[in-house]
Design a protein that fits this description.
Blueprint (H helix, E strand, L loop, with lengths): L7 H13 L26 E9 L4 H4 L4 E6 L12 H4 L5 E3 L1 H13 L5 E4 L5 H13 L6 E4 L6 H5 L7 E2 L8 H8 L4 H16 L3 E2 L5 E10 L8 H12 L4 E5 L20 H13 L9
Length: about 300
């Protein structure tokens, strides 16, 4: 099969058009971020980042020996009241970062031997990231690119990354819309995440690793188990198995702890139990899923 020809310049132009009356994410705020107007995410045209460097706390297939080259973007298009990185996502701690500086960060991570470039919370800055990738590739960037999002992504925007992003790593946070609204202020989350996952999988397929076990391409799905089954694991696992792939890599995560405003909501003001975690694992196995999780 002939390799798809990518016109990155055209993709960047189309992406920036989405900033004019912002519809970069499913919220479709309609503000003109190119003129400094701010919508739900409270950021304008210029990138804002909090940190960058080799990261060793990601999935083993991303970390390898030299780490995943992570760049943490400031702000988020979700409002998870239990967010463990709330200082970055909700309080928006970070610094204005030019496109040129962002490119320098990517190339520096490549020079340090990182196995990939990992954009953490990229959704609201997707056009700017696309532009930075275009410039960085012209300067020699050749690592796999990881789009590490909360899953609340626009299919229209994702399509502009087709052939550019190598690894998609979205959260699949909720199987039901009620907790998605109550705890993350995310209207229509289940429908949006399903559409996004389908598009991501269409582009990159199931995760593929090299001879050393390092991910080169594919979809990695994260599912954080919440107390009291608020994450809707049954619905999530059934969808992944029946409409994405039984060979999907699903990281079922047990590290939930109440942070930020979560301590004020009794339903989420505790860590999960081992039984809750094992139940999520069991649900995944019953659906025929078998990659990325264990006990």
């Amino acid at each position: 099969m002939a390799k798809k020809v990518i016109d990155l310049e055209a993709s960047v132009k189309e992406a920036y058009r989405l900033l004019d009356a912002c519809c970069v994410c499913p919220r479709k705020c309609g503000v003109n971020r190119l003129k400094g107007e701010k919508g739900h995410c409270q950021v304008g045209e210029e990138l804002v980042t909090s940190s960058f460097g080799p990261h060793f706390g990601e999935e083993p297939e991303l970390v390898g020996r030299n780490g995943s080259g992570t760049i943490f973007l400031t702000s988020c298009n979700l409002n998870c009241l239990f967010c463990q990185n709330y200082d970055i996502s909700q309080l928006r701690h970070g610094v204005l970062t030019s496109i040129d500086r962002f490119v320098e960060q990517m190339l520096a991570l490549q020079k340090r031997g990182c196995h990939n470039i990992n954009f953490v919370s990229p959704t609201h800055f997707a056009p700017q990231i696309l532009k930075a990738i275009w410039i960085a590739k012209e300067k020699g960037l050749n690592l796999p690119l990881v789009y590490n999002s909360g899953g609340y992504d626009s299919v229209e925007m994702l399509k502009l990354f087709d052939g550019i992003i190598d690894i998609y790593m979205p959260d699949a946070k909720y199987g039901d819309g009620d907790p998605a609204m109550r705890f993350s202020n995310a209207p229509n989350y289940p429908t949006i995440i399903k559409e996004a996952l389908k598009e991501m999988h269409r582009q990159v397929g199931d995760m593929v690793v090299d001879g050393e076990g390092i991910a080169q391409k594919g979809l990695i799905i994260r599912h954080l188990v919440l107390p009291n089954d608020l994450s809707g694991s049954r619905e999530i696992m059934h969808f992944i198995a029946t409409e994405i792939s039984k060979d999907s890599y699903v990281n079922i995560m047990d590290q939930y702890r109440p942070c930020y405003k979560g301590i004020t909501h009794p339903e989420v003001n505790r860590c999960i139990t081992m039984d809750e975690y094992r139940r999520a694992i069991e649900l995944a196995r019953k659906e025929g899923l078998h990659r990325g999780f264990g006990e």
